[in-house]
Here is the input.
Amino acid sequence: MLTPSERERYDRQIMIGEIGQKGQGKLKKSRVVIAGAGGLGSPIAVYLTAAGIGTIRIIDHDQVALSNLNRQILHWEEDVGRKKVDSARTKLRNLNSTVEIQAIAETITKENVSDLMDGCDAIVDAMDNLPTRYLLNRCAIEKNIPFFHGAVNGFEGRVMTVIPGETACLRCMYRGLVPQEKFPVIGVAPAVIGSIQATEVIKYLVGIGKLLTNRLLIYDGLKVTFSEFRLNKNPNCDHCGSSAGKE
Amino acid sequence: MVVKVHIHTTHRQFTNGSDVVAVEGNTVGECLNHLIKQFPGMEKALFVKKDKLLNNVEVYLNHASAYPNELAKPVKDGDEIHLVVMLTGG
Here is the structure.
């Protein structure tokens, strides 16, 4: 049930036929984990907070550095040296005090990932490294929680949505480890990709639209093109297929 | 068989800036070999060793994932191959 204040705050999105008061009520009841409070995590957290998600758990072990500020718009000059999740919580609470923001300054590991994701309706991948993305992917599948992947490099980015047990997962095309390198990026790339991830989360929680499942969307900011590629669920995938749990 | 290969942004330094290259072959692997004949720099951008793609290279045939056994996939005249590099940044 929405309060009069909430009906006023969310008036413009309640006007969208696919959302309405019923959809807004679903967003209010939802709990979303955002793994990473950096370039992708910033727009994702801002738009999900503005949209009125009930509870947002944002996880990041890092502190704000000056070199983050070209893209991590949740963090400002005054936050340099501060924990990213504390900086994020301050901004998000000022944006929408009705949303419960859970700020967790921890490194996501194989040992704690299950506890950190516990009780949520959606996991949003805003990480900056592949090993943690795979930890989240596996956890999402094991807990049957939808997983919203995004990644960027330079002016480029990619997005896909995983519905456990139904669609291809992040691991379905795995060929082996990829070296971890410092990556170049301009802030507008995670802005575009994070906004699409947030859109996917909202659509899923409300139960509308067509999700980016079994599809990989690649954005090229230099050409301003979106390319879509079909993905196949891998029956032998070690996360979601017959090889699951055999690692 | 004439096939179009779409080159990823980061690989265009090896193709004199070309984003699409016409190649010939009956399989994805033959097409990539023909690509490398035209632009030898593409070999190290795609392969860790003969017939073994780098782990961060993804191959799509006619906008669908060619995984697994990408190189063995047959192609026909007019097909399109996209070479994509996996991204990990956030």
Notes: Chain A has a mean pLDDT of 97. The interface with chain B takes residues 36, 38-41, 125-130, 133, 150-158, 172-173, 175-180, 183, 185, 190, 216, 218, 220, 222, 227-232, 234 of chain A (CB under 8 Å).
